[in-house]
């Protein structure tokens, strides 16, 4: 009977020793996983550095001719001459079309003859006023006739000049809309004329960038027709008013186009170079997004990591500007962030 309690005591002691051994090995294993598990804490890091960053605004714009006009008839009559070569360069003042002006020329000759006669009579009356006071009223009457005839002649001369349609500026002619010999009415469009030696580009910029915009600021322009070819321009004008719907300002720039590659109506990709500044940049791979915030793991002197929230700025290929949260020289984890948490000690495999 006395052996049974003794045996029970041994069994209890053995179980207790086994439990203690289990607890000790489990704790030792957890510690090893936290501090010695290379497959979980091996990371690649990088140093935070400063670099030149070009602040840019990218938007879409429309190409416009520097000068553009519809060539229209200012009066009605038959076209006796049409000298419009589509797509050809013309000079300012070059004759493009001629309307039938036979009636106007006859009326001009008639008025010129009448005006000459009236001036001759006026000159005779001027001589008579030196000796006869009664001729003064006749002189005034004749002067009024001369003035009226001169006004009629000026009006007919103006109408005669409208019978000739000339280029208002240097440019390229568009497609012809009428034919020689046709009767055209006032306002009929004959063709278009565009000066595209310089192209204007029209685009909108958000109000947040207004403070950074200045005249003569450089522009980089591309178009799908010319691939990666860049055209260089400058800002030349800004609308004093903002669009109340889009909260953006309309901007006009100019681009030299002596080779005539760009044409009015083209869709242009516009990049505005705002400024070049030295900024902190973090590798894009180091960023851990969480909801609407962004974090990185910073490596401390004892090789432990700490999760730090950062504020991001402009993105460039491979890197992002850091506005706050980091300092130059900080070491951040760029590979292996998915297995980290605060306080974990890391082993570096490369920088």
Automatic annotation (TrEMBL):
Keywords: Coiled coil, Membrane, Transmembrane, Transmembrane helix. Residues 108-166 form a coiled coil. Belongs to the membrane fusion protein (MFP) (TC 8.A.1) family. This is Efflux RND transporter periplasmic adaptor subunit. SUPFAM superfamilies: HlyD-like secretion proteins. The chain crosses the membrane at residues 7-25. Gene3D superfamilies: 2.40.30.170, 2.40.420.20, 2.40.50.100, Helix hairpin bin (1.10.287.470). Residues 279-347 form the YknX-like C-terminal permuted SH3-like domain. GO terms for molecular function: efflux transmembrane transporter activity. InterPro entries: Beta-barrel_RND_2, MdtA-like_BSH, RND_pump_MFP, YknX-like_C. The lineage of its organism: Bacteria, Pseudomonadati, Pseudomonadota, Gammaproteobacteria, Chromatiales. Residues 76-189 form the Multidrug resistance protein MdtA-like barrel-sandwich hybrid domain. GO terms for cellular component: efflux pump complex. Pfam families: Beta-barrel_RND_2 (PF25954), BSH_RND (PF25917), YknX_C (PF25989). Residues 201-273 form the CusB-like beta-barrel domain.
